[in-house]
TrEMBL record:
Record-annotated membrane-spanning stretches: 6-22, 29-45, 51-69, 81-99, 111-127, 139-157
Record bears the keyword Aminoacyl-tRNA synthetase: no
Source domain of life: Bacteria
Source organism: Halanaerobium salsuginis
Entry protein name: DUF5668 domain-containing protein
Keywords recorded for this protein, A-Z: Membrane, Transmembrane, Transmembrane helix
Length: 162
């Protein structure tokens, strides 16, 4: 990266940190501005023309997801849903990277963390808000039983192959 561009990036980052330290920016606005800066640098450097520009897009969309989560948690109904929303937003952030990677050979890697985080968030929402899982004492017996049964199945099928 040319020294001029790196210098501009360092100055902007330093100003953001200084404004935040002087309490001229609240934390949420700071996250939005920092995300916007990373995304702007991504576009300034040529966006999809160069694969390595994704290094600016990734922190931009992740910071945007964190800022959105902070804002959404201010709504009582969403805050009551729990932490699953955070993981869903992170999953969507990674899935949005497909807009960049679809033009290159290594296009599919954002699917893996994106889908994993989104599915984990949905499962987390279900477990956290389901009355079935509010009392988790029975999991002390259910999880070991599942592991033992899984081990028995593996041993049974591995003995057939010898």
């Amino acid at each position: 990266m040319p020294k001029k561009k790196l210098g501009i990036i360092l100055i902007v980052a330093g100003l953001f940190i200084l404004f935040n330290s002087l309490n001229l920016l609240n934390d949420d606005l700071f996250l939005y501005l920092l995300a916007a800066t990373f995304i702007a640098v991504y576009f300034i450097l040529g966006s999809v023309r160069h694969y390595h520009n994704i290094g600016f897009l990734i922190p931009g969309v992740v910071l945007l997801a964190i800022a959105l989560n902070n804002d959404l948690n201010r709504f009582e109904k969403i805050d009551q849903l729990g932490g699953g929303i955070f993981f869903i937003l992170l999953g969507v952030a990674f899935l949005s990277l497909l807009l960049h990677t679809q033009k290159f050979k290594k296009w599919d890697w954002p699917l893996y963390p994106g889908l994993a985080l989104a599915i984990f968030g949905l499962v987390f929402l279900f477990f956290e808000n389901s009355s079935l899982f509010q009392e988790l004492a029975y999991l002390n017996y259910l999880i070991p039983a599942i592991l033992i049964i899984g081990g028995i199945i593996l041993l049974y099928f591995s003995s057939d192959q010898k």
